Amino acid sequence: MQSSSKAGGNGDAKHLVCVTGAGSFIGSWVVKELLLRGYRVRGTARDPAHRKNAHLLALDGAGERLTLCRADVMHGDSLRAAFWGCRGVFHIASPVSNDPELVPEAVEGTRNVINAAADAGVRRVVFTSSYGAVHMDPNRSPDTVVTTTTTANKPAYNLYCCAKMMAEVAATEEAARRGLELAVVVPATTIGPALQQTLNFSSDHVARFLMGAKPAYQNAVTAYVDVRDVARAHALVYEHPEARSHRYLCVSAVLHRAHFVRLLKDLFPQYPVTAKCEDDGKPRVREYRFSNQKLGDLGLEFTDMRTSLYETVICLQHRGHVPVIVPRHRACL
User: Fold this and answer.
1) From 6, 164, 265, 282, active-site residue
2) What is the mean pLDDT of the chain?
């Protein structure tokens, strides 16, 4: 494992960092990863005392090196208070919604985070973008390799992705204006075991196909990555001095929906996995290529999709989000 002593060029491995949206699916794993690497972590939440954040306090090292504080990305004073004394900030908090009224929160909230970090003397911010800010371009050829230099073509039909794209632009502009180091992680649809009790969007995506709640799957492809790889990616780009001013594509696999549901059925044949494809009258959409080499060069080894899907479903069972159906033969990886 890469030593955290190089963290952002900031020296001492035990220094303090802040994670916005600490109780979220990705945020929780980033907190866990940072604690594992020896950092002191301050996590922000709108209501730190709420039971939905209790899982954070149970993490290894949390008792000695984790504090939670109240902050809202739309209130600069709360952010400056949260960031004070921190050398690094991981900005993960963002509304996961297609509600147009929440777009300003994603964009202006990010602008507020960057400015508050600069005001508080933070050295590096790691911003969590979205794969939608990279790949959503209906005019792109499937032969084009999607990389961190690729930019979406204003995906207005998906306001969440549009908001993340605009937020990344805002983060880049403000960081340059304020002289703040910025590294950007661009994760795909993120699956894997959850630390929090609540059901997040991408895990629900898996659960609905597993239980056949979707009568048919789309003729579409989706990029996926394991949440633990996303967390490690955040730590790696924070720790490597040369990562500033770079984007890092965090993708493990691109699967057609038919491939995705077939994997689920192979792993869990006892479940009524969605098996029918919507007839849209079009040829099967091709799985496009991508490059995650930049994170590979930092030492990240990606979890294979079969393992990610298996452990996602096991977690859904343990959390009570899907019923446990006993197989005739145990699922094998």
Assistant:
1) 164
2) 88
